[in-house]
């Protein structure tokens, strides 16, 4: 294998944060190079420097095919053969899937006008390679977040690149799509294309990477061939703890008392597009952790949105035996429901506000006397949560925009947990957070259940679902296709129900 | 044609009190003659707006149109078209002299300006610094008045015109402009309010504590008899108002239109309605 | 309307609509329906409305606003705004008039007017892209400067030069029964509708407004797109200015003042969202038509002239509300 | 300015600024600097500028715009816009005048004016939240309706009733050397600055504009927030209308026309982004002050009246550009 790209002595300082501290990185042609590290370790920042989004502090250098280069912007990076799938979605909602994939390099016909037919056909070809069943003419704004992620992936692989960076491409994908992607990555590397693969899912890393670099607090702590790396060692390098001490035993706290009961939940006025939810029924008991599994687009998020009042439904929802009508989120919140949304940037956070303001938005009245906010108290609570969830931020007054992806996710979790709802719905709660934090979130959910909270966990991470749920409900194409107790819920059984 | 079958339309420049008086006169005349009457006020002072209104009135097949022109040249074409289509068209208050309109009824603005300038010259004894507060900077009738004022002042070499300020015919703006004018020119001795907003604005400024002591030294001449302008005269802040005869204009406009439509008037001539200089002395006795 | 709203509307519509092109289609269709409805009601009430002469007059009357709204809607789709269109229009008409006064031939005079628009647009574009001023401030500044220049040049006196016969065709001529300004409006509408829907540039305009950050990361030259739309907007406004001058043969010192609101309104009524990313050229023209027809109707129906503005406002509210409610019902809203 | 732009600016600023509150702070500080600079330059050129009388006069002159911009900036922070402030102001002043004419006592007349603003704002708010009209269209509609009503009521003739002495204090009185309208402006500024920065409602206004969807999902009653800001905006505008009437004791049929642009400009110059989420009450007032000082300066300096508008526009562009460039430099943009 020959060297494609080298980064030397790369540092990056943000106000109040040293994100990267003298990092070196060498990437070979055709190599799958995993990049691991806890949230805020600097992985995304390093990749953004490689693609010209940020400029590194003076003193560092980047060599592409042996020549030193200054990378001006992502377009320039692409011309050097480097393309990237960003951790945060960068799609244009008001354009179609095909238009997004070919944005800024749209095919043109002989007249100079767009060749939409070719564009759609090409898009369809790429999507088929990824085994994605999305209409190239569909508006991206209407897709679920997982589907948007696939569109980004499709766009990235359709570039003729020599190095493809994937920053947590699978965070919002489920098992099936992940497997397809793994195959895709292997094929690309077989063609001599280098891949940088960032993920917090250790299985994936061990499955496909050739080498691995671990970052901690902005510095390289290890680079190894994957053969020389073990899970335990990786976790130790990343979070400085033993894997075995991370995840505790699962204890069920479920009582027999039904708290939430959903009957025949369907999307109101269903339209013909997409997988739409129909006739979903289930019960949620007090202190129970109920897992929801399904493939991308199975309709799990849609069910949760209906319960939370952000999507019109028909059917019946009862809480503690009382029928309730939930037409907007504030009603749901008043009824004691909390909802950690899967799309943290679009739905979870006000990016222009700081950590404190985002944190307290769900429960601001806790700190209010006559509508005046008692800021000191607000701040103190926020600091508590920053500590307990190990949110890496310079302080409560940092804009969430400047936090790393995983730390943003933690803020979303914190803002709901701090509200102490009776029913907490978490949709892909550990999306993009590191293994240490994931363990902490699992512990947190377990502790909350122990306090008598009822929790619904939607996750595409099958091991996660199996690890923390008392019971698992499986959705396929908007319908319940399985309900399994903890003992029945094996990997095979759940997958069977999900894929049919 | 039967009076009942005749429709005449009167189009002012904008909605201001002056034209409300015109409307009164025109309506009275129309009622007296028994003709149908339409009053159409443009939404802004652009020439094109009036063109559009005339087009609409032609489509409506009115028999006569009297218009106070915002911008003389731009309505020429459409007035000529209307005349060709057999509609009687005359102008009042503000003319489009090169068009084929049958006649003009109204004040000769330049002459009114001259009268205003002369009044000021006499009031100041031929000596002092003066300023003009106008309305919309583009309005042709105001520009004619300003020209008239300048022409009259040319006779008084010791009177210096130190500033002309636009106000967009907005009272609030006119007040703050007048204040700044007075501050920037501590020795100012005369103000012309050539648009309707000038009189009320100057009167209000002079009534203020800060400027009250300058009221005596300052000679003010204004245009049009708005209630606040008249009040200003009564209170001694304004020395004279050029009062036109809007009611008369409106009445005459309709009367002449109907006469022309019925073929009674075949050789119409322009009609100067003149201005009256109204001061404290004749405040109760003038007519519009 | 916020971006999320827009998306929701899109989602609501669900069924019938699959992609942007169709969506735009329907938006326009709704406003067109409102337009036809208003027209129908007026024609019931007065026989004068549905005559060729009147309709052509109405078309010609709103054509200038409509032309300007074509440039405006592109700016709005990028998420910007151009308050200076009225000044660009007025200044272009003034420069053309001055060029005639200076004895330039027709071609040169028209070019001078167009160049004025171009320079105006470049100024806006550079203030926004190179200096980084918010579009509202940048174009508000040039709006004032443009007006000021017009006053300084004219001292409030209209410029009315002699012009060759041929020049007046632009504003006063007819092709068959159709006034030339209307023809120009339709040509521009078709050209820019095609550009917006079928060219790379058009896609990039939508992308810039939809998600500027993502567009930039994808390689869209966002600043160039913005510069271009501001140049187009001012240049198209200058075309309107030249036509206007040709029609009235008088360049008024205050021409175009206040028209920015009418022009933006046309785009907005035609479905453009000031949040960017949404809108269409045909929609904007139909929006201008709706306002024009209402204005005509009020005079034809001899409605109390003082009420005209109130009625116009009311009808616009009702027309757009119908559009919004229709969407909600058909889509199954929250 | 689009959201991404805002974010970039924020990124660029880096160094000094850590959080939103400080950011707001600095924004204001920059405009304040520009204001002081302009004031300093004017005072160098003319001795009449820095006199108590003139300064108080200037303050009083821009106080109405500033008051209206306080309501406007809250609307803009939610991501909306209120084009109807001028109409709300004018109508409120007219209704107050009519109430006096009808013989109402002062308290009742003022209440009638305030009620007008309230109803106006409720209408806007309901059109936007209940029907779902885009704010631009909704308030454009009510702008027209308001103007139309004023014409219908007055036929263009100002209403000048007799009023009790006490009433004129509101517009003409002084507290020490400070005109009462200026005092009212300062009080409103402080009250609403505190509300925006220290209360739950204020937080919700920023959240709504920052990310409406996320705010709604966090339990913010987004529609109620919007309704409230529109009601506040119109009501505050009606306060300006009542003060204006008290000052001139004449309710002009065209008062407030066209002021929407001035008011929005004040908010924008003061740092508010039309994309929502960003802005401040004090910034808006300082923005109004900047424009007011320039307007006073051009008259004091006896600048040719025809050039005044161009100069005003130019100075605003330069002042805001300095702000933008300063931020860029201090942030050391990428
Ligand atoms: N634009 C920015 N301004 C200020 N700080 C930043 C900015 N971007 C990143 N940071 C900080 O730099 C550090 C590294 O962030 P980065 O996004 O690279 O982490 P990461 O390793 O990708 O984490 P994750 O696994 O959560 O995605 C974090 O502490 C983050 O807060
Ligand atoms: N084929 C499709 N075309 C367009 N939209 C689709 C399609 N399939 C699903 N959708 C959209 O996807 C959403 C349904 O997926 P939802 O997000 O509820 O599922 P999920 O199981 O949570 O999947 P994900 O992991 O992707 O979030 C709906 O919003 C629907 O509009
Ligand atoms: Mg990251
Ligand atoms: Mg989901």
From TrEMBL, chain A:
* Topology relative to the membrane: Peripheral membrane protein
Q: Give the UniProt entry's GO cellular component terms.
A: plasma membrane
Q: Where in the cell is it found?
A: Cell membrane
GO MF term (any one):
ATP binding
According to the entry, every stretch annotated as the ABC transporter domain falls at 5-242, 262-497
Known InterPro entries for this protein? AAA+_ATPase, ABC_carbohydrate_import_ATPase, ABC_transporter-like_ATP-bd, ABC_transporter-like_CS, P-loop_NTPase
User: Which Pfam family, giving just one, matches this sequence?
Assistant: ABC_tran
SUPFAM superfamilies assigned to the protein according to its UniProt record, in alphabetical order: P-loop containing nucleoside triphosphate hydrolases
Q: Does the keyword Nucleotide-binding apply?
A: yes
Keyword Ribonucleoprotein included in the entry's annotation: no
The principal localisation class reads membrane
Listed A to Z, the keywords are:
ATP-binding, Cell membrane, Membrane, Nucleotide-binding, Repeat, Sugar transport, Translocase, Transport
Q: Which PANTHER family does the entry mention?
A: CARBOHYDRATE TRANSPORT ATP-BINDING PROTEIN MG119-RELATED, D-ALLOSE IMPORT ATP-BINDING PROTEIN ALSA-RELATED
Q: What is this protein called?
A: Monosaccharide ABC transporter ATP-binding protein, CUT2 family
UniProtKB/TrEMBL annotation, chains C, D:
Q: Which key words are in the record?
A: Cell membrane, Membrane, Transmembrane, Transmembrane helix
Q: Could you state a single Gene Ontology molecular function term?
A: transmembrane transporter activity
CDD domains for this protein: TM_PBP1_transp_AraH_like (cd06579)
Q: Which Pfam families match?
A: BPD_transp_2
Do the record's keywords include Transmembrane?
A: yes
Q: Where in the cell is it found?
A: Cell membrane
Q: How does it sit in the membrane?
A: Multi-pass membrane protein
Q: According to its record, what are the GO cellular component terms?
A: plasma membrane
Q: Where are the transmembrane segments?
A: 31-50, 56-76, 108-129, 174-197, 227-248, 306-325
Identification of the protein by name = Monosaccharide ABC transporter membrane protein, CUT2 family
Record lineage: Bacteria, Pseudomonadati, Pseudomonadota, Alphaproteobacteria, Rhodobacterales
């Amino acid at each position: 294998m020959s060297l494609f790209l080298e980064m030397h002595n790369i540092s990056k300082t943000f106000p109040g944060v040293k994100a990267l501290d003298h990092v070196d990185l060498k990437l070979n042609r055709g190599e799958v190079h995993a990049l691991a590290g806890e949230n805020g370790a600097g992985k995304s920042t390093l990749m953004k420097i490689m693609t010209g989004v940020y400029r590194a502090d003076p003193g560092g250098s980047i060599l592409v095919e042996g020549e030193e280069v200054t990378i001006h912007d992502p377009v320039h990076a692409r011309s050097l053969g480097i393309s990237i799938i960003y951790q945060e979605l960068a799609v244009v909602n008001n354009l179609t899937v095909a238009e997004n994939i070919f944005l800024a390099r749209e095919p043109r016909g002989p007249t100079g006008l767009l060749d939409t037919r070719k564009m759609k056909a090409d898009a369809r070809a790429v999507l088929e390679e990824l085994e994605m069943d999305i209409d190239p003419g569909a508006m991206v704004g209407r897709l679920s977040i997982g589907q948007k992620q696939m569109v980004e992936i499709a766009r990235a692989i359709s570039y003729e690149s020599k190095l493809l960076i994937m920053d947590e491409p699978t965070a919002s994908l489920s098992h099936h799509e992940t497997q397809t992607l793994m195959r895709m990555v292997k094929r690309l590397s077989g063609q001599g294309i280098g891949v940088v693969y960032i993920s917090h899912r250790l299985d994936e890393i061990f499955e496909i990477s050739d080498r691995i670099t671990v970052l901690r607090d902005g510095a390289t702590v290890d680079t190894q061939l994957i053969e020389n790396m073990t899970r335990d060692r990786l976790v130790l390098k990343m979070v400085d703890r033993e894997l075995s001490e991370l995840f505790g035993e699962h204890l069920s706290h479920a009582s027999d008392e039904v708290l939430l009961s959903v009957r025949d939940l369907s999307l109101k006025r269903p339209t013909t597009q997409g997988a739409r939810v129909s006739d979903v029924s289930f019960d949620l008991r007090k202190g129970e952790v109920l897992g929801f599994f399904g493939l991308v687009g199975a309709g799990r998020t849609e069910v949760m949105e209906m319960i939370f009042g952000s999507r019109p439904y028909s059917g019946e929802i009862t809480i503690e035996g009382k029928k309730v009508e939930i037409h907007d989120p504030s009603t749901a919140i008043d009824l004691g429901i909390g909802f950690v949304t899967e799309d943290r940037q679009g739905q979870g956070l006000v990016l222009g506000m700081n950590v404190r303001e985002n944190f307290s938005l769900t429960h601001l009245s806790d700190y209010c006397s006559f509508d005046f906010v008692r800021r000191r108290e607000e701040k103190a609570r926020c600091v508590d949560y920053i500590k307990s969830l190990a949110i890496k931020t310079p302080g409560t007054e940092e804009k969430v925009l400047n936090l790393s992806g995983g730390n943003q996710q933690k803020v979303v979790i914190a803002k709901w947990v701090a509200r102490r709802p009776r029913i907490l719905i978490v949709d892909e709660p550990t999306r993009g957070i590191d293994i240490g934090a994931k363990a902490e979130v699992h512990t947190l959910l377990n502790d909350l259940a122990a306090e008598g909270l009822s929790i619904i966990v939607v996750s595409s991470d099958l091991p996660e679902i199996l690890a923390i749920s008392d019971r698992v409900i499986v959705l396929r194409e908007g319908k319940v296709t399985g309900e399994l107790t903890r003992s029945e819920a094996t990997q095979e059984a759940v997958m069977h129900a999900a894929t049919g | 044609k039967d009076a009942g079958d005749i429709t005449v339309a009167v189009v002012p420049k904008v909605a201001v009190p002056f034209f409300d008086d015109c409307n009164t006169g025109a309506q009275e005349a129309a009622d007296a003659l028994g003709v149908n009457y339409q009053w159409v006020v443009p939404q802004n002072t652009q020439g094109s707006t009036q063109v559009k209104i005339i087009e609409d009135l032609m489509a409506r097949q009115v028999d006569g149109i009297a218009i106070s022109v915002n911008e003389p040249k731009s309505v020429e074409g459409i007035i000529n078209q209307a005349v060709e289509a057999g509609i009687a068209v005359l102008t009042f208050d503000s003319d489009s002299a090169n068009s084929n309109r049958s006649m003009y009824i109204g004040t000769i603005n330049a002459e009114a300006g001259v009268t205003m300038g002369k009044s000021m010259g006499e009031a100041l004894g031929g000596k002092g610094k003066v300023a003009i507060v106008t309305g919309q900077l583009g309005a042709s009738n105001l520009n004619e008045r300003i020209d008239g004022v300048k022409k009259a002042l040319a006779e008084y070499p010791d009177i210096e015109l130190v500033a002309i300020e636009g106000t967009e015919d907005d009272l609030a703006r006119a007040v703050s402009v007048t204040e700044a004018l007075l501050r920037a020119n501590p020795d100012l001795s005369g103000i012309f309010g050539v648009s309707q907003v000038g009189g009320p604005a100057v009167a209000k400024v002079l009534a203020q504590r800060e400027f009250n002591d300058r009221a005596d030294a300052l000679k003010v001449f204004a245009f049009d008899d708005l209630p606040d302008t008249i009040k200003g005269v009564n209170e001694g802040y304004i020395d004279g108002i050029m009062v036109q005869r809007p009611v008369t204009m409106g009445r005459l406009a309709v009367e002449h239109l109907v006469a022309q439509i019925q073929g009674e008037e075949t050789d119409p001539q322009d009609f100067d309605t003149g201005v009256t200089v109204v001061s404290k002395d004749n405040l109760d006795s003038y007519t519009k | 309307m916020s971006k999320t709203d827009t998306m929701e509307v899109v989602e609501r519509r669900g069924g019938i609509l699959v992609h942007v092109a169709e969506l735009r289609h329907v938006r326009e269709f709704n406003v067109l329906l409102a337009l036809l409805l208003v027209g129908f009601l007026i024609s019931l009430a007065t026989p004068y409305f549905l005559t060729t002469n009147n309709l052509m007059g109405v078309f010609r009357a709103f054509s200038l606003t409509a032309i300007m709204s074509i440039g405006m809607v592109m700016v709005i789709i990028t998420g910007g705004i151009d308050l200076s269109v009225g000044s660009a229009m007025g200044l272009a008409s003034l420069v053309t008039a001055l060029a005639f006064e200076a004895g330039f031939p027709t071609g040169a005079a028209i070019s001078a007017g167009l160049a004025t628009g171009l320079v105006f647009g470049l100024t806006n574009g550079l203030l926004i892209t190179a200096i980084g001023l918010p579009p509202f401030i940048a174009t508000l500044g040039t709006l004032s400067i443009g007006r000021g220049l017009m006053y300084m040049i004219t001292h409030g006196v209209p410029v009315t030069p002699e012009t060759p016969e041929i020049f007046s065709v632009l504003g006063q001529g007819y092709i068959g029964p159709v006034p030339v300004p209307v023809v120009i409006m339709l040509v521009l509408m078709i050209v820019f509708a095609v550009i917006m829907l079928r060219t790379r540039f058009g896609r990039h305009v939508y992308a810039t407004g939809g998600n500027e950050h993502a567009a930039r990361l994808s390689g869209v030259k966002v600043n160039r797109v913005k510069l271009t739309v501001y140049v187009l907007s001012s240049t198209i406004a200058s075309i309107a200015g030249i036509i206007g001058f040709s029609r009235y043969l008088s360049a008024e010192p205050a021409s175009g003042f206040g028209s920015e609101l009418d022009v933006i309104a046309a785009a907005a009524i035609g479905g453009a969202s000031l949040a960017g990313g949404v809108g269409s050229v045909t929609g904007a023209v139909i929006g201008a038509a709706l306002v024009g027809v209402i204005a005509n109707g009020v005079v034809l129906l001899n409605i109390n002239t003082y009420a005209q503005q109130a009625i116009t406002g009311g009808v616009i509210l009702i027309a757009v509300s119908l559009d919004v409610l229709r969407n909600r019902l058909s889509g199954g809203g929250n």
